[in-house]
Specification:
Shape: elongated
Strand order of the largest sheet: 2-1-5-3-4
Number of domains: 4
CATH topology of the largest domain: Ubiquitin-like (UB roll)
Distance between the termini: 39 Å
Order of helices and strands: EEHEEEHHEHEEHEEEEHEEHEHE
Structural class: alpha+beta
Radius of gyration: 27 Å
Helix content: 10-25%
CATH architecture of the largest domain: Roll
CATH class of the largest domain: Alpha Beta
Number of strands: 16
């Protein structure tokens, strides 16, 4: 079916839209913010949190902006007294079944608590707390992911991400009513499920119910975010390093993925990209060239000395065993020019076609 372009109105302003788009998508493109807790652009709209309800002319009820498809001539209102009353009640209901701080707002966690931000923007209806604790997984000894059921609002973003993006279905909504929780098969720990420990559930969680075990509970105020490239394989996923300390003495304390849509990995990371950063500051990490001396020990050397030593060693292997005794492996994240030079080094200098690149492994 071909996409048709037409105009709709949002808050009285004419906006261009296409067949199949939702109110949320059109509004986001026009710079109009519609708050939501259950929506993730990588997932199919669920309309579960009810935060994004808007007024659609001709509709008796408020409709979910994340799931409501636009049509030609539609008139939408995203801010009104009716919507404001709805949000006050809704946030009050969430807070009544949520762990709060001393000020009565959702507790801060290592990850962004979007419910806390929204509650601060709109004074919620003050409701009596509900004593209905959800079941967690207290025996889950996996090294990376922690789940706090008292901070969960059952938006199902984590379970939908596990299903729709990772396609492993390690977690799901289980039980009914006030006892509904994020569970695994038989309430087993994640290590005993199909979970790949990618941490995508942490990334998509809007309340901090899912957090990293490795990172600090609170990032220091001087923490810097630095965009970098994962160095574990040839895909070249982008990631954000959270660094604490000065440039000369900074330490990576956490890694997160960039927002969906910004980079080639669309906000996704694997277990290595998100959690395997201990090597950066490990005491055994090699930080300078080393050459083995006549005493059999490794000694620091300059780059010029190390390169000359390696070239000499390769020539000795070629002279003794022939050029095909050598093999060269380049990196898929080198530039095309650098990979070209690597194959010329292999073929023209050392005379072997044994040259490969890690992106094919």
């Amino acid at each position: 079916m071909s996409s048709k372009e037409f105009d709709i109105k949002i808050n009285g302003e004419t906006c261009s839209a296409k067949t199949g788009e939702t109110v949320y998508e059109v509004a986001a493109r026009e710079g109009i913010e519609i708050p939501t807790l259950c929506h993730d652009t990588r997932l199919e709209p669920a309309g579960a949190c009810r935060v994004c309800l808007v007024e659609v002319k001709g509709q008796r009820r408020l409709e979910p902006g994340c799931a409501w498809k636009v049509s030609e001539g539609m008139e939408v209102t995203t801010e009104s007294d009716r919507i404001e009353r709805h949000r006050k009640v809704l946030y009050g209901l969430y807070l009544a079944d949520h762990r709060l701080d001393d000020d009565g707002f959702p507790v801060e966690t290592a990850n962004d608590n979007q419910l806390r931000r929204l509650a601060n923007e709109t004074k919620p209806l003050d409701l009596h707390p509900v004593d209905a604790p959800r079941v967690g997984r207290p025996e889950d000894v996996n090294p990376y992911i922690s789940f706090d059921p008292d901070l969960c609002i059952l938006c199902a973003r984590c379970t939908r991400y596990c299903d729709e993006v990772e396609a492993v279905n390690a977690i799901t909504l289980s039980n009914r009513g006030s006892q509904t929780t994020i569970a695994t098969a038989g309430m087993r720990g994640l290590l005993d499920t199909t979970c790949e420990l990618c941490g995508g559930c942490i990334d998509t969680c809007p309340t901090g119910a899912l957090v990293e075990k490795k990172s600090p509970d609170r990032l220091p105020a001087d923490a810097r975010k630095i965009r970098s490239t994962c160095n574990f394989c040839g895909v070249g996923c982008q990631l954000d390093l959270h660094v604490v300390g000065t440039n000369g003495d900074g330490r990576v304390v956490k890694i997160t993925s960039p927002p969906p849509g910004e980079t080639v990995n669309d906000g996704n990371l694997c277990v290595k990209g998100r959690f395997a950063y201990d090597f950066i500051h490990h005491e055994d990490r090699i930080t300078e060239p080393l050459i083995r001396g006549e005493d059999g020990e490794l000694h620091p050397a300059s780059w010029d000395e190390a390169i000359a030593y390696a070239a000499e060693g390769l020539l000795k292997v070629k002279e003794k065993y022939g050029p095909d005794a050598l093999g060269f492996v380049s990196s898929s994240r080198c530039t095309g020019e650098e990979n070209y030079l690597m194959q010329k080094l292999s073929r023209a200098v050392y005379g072997t076609n044994n040259i490969h690149q890690c992106s094919a492994t």
